[in-house]
Design a protein that fits this description.
The chain is an alpha+beta fold. It has one domain. The protein is built from three helices and seven strands. The chain has helices at 20-31, 72-78, 83-86; strands at 4-11, 14-17, 34-35, 47-52, 55-61, 67-71, 93-97. A hairpin with a 2-residue loop joins strand 4 and strand 5 (55-61).
Length: 109
């Protein structure tokens, strides 16, 4: 998670880039997510971009929920030690659950 340079939230209030304090907290929140093998939930239009080495990657979320979809390439590239867990998975997107509810719509300018 330390490799995340910045995060931009996209919600009903517009776009919001996390400040340094929020970014530290959000990194911890992302790091505590749990993989939900076999789960499939429809995500909303609200989500966020994480930037790794300047390159943005969009993650779809459920607005008032605990779930986020992460593209498999982010897991494969950045967490090779987890590959045995994800290798049987054919989906391009993997579903994770936050430890606590993260209301993406609460982030505002």
């Amino acid at each position: 998670m330390a490799a995340i340079d910045s995060v931009t939230i996209h919600n009903n209030s517009g776009n919001y880039r996390l400040n340094a304090t929020e970014l530290r907290t959000f990194r911890n929140t992302l790091g505590a997510m749990k993989y939900l093998p076999g789960a499939d939930l429809k995500m909303g239009t609200i989500g966020f971009d994480i930037y790794l080495q300047g390159q943005g990657h969009y993650l779809a979320t459920r607005t008032h929920g605990k779930y986020v979809k992460v593209h498999r390439s982010l897991i494969d590239k950045n967490s090779s030690f987890l590959l045995p867990i994800f290798n049987p998975v054919e989906s391009e997107e993997l579903l994770f659950e936050f430890d606590e509810v993260v209301n993406i719509d609460n982030f505002r300018k």
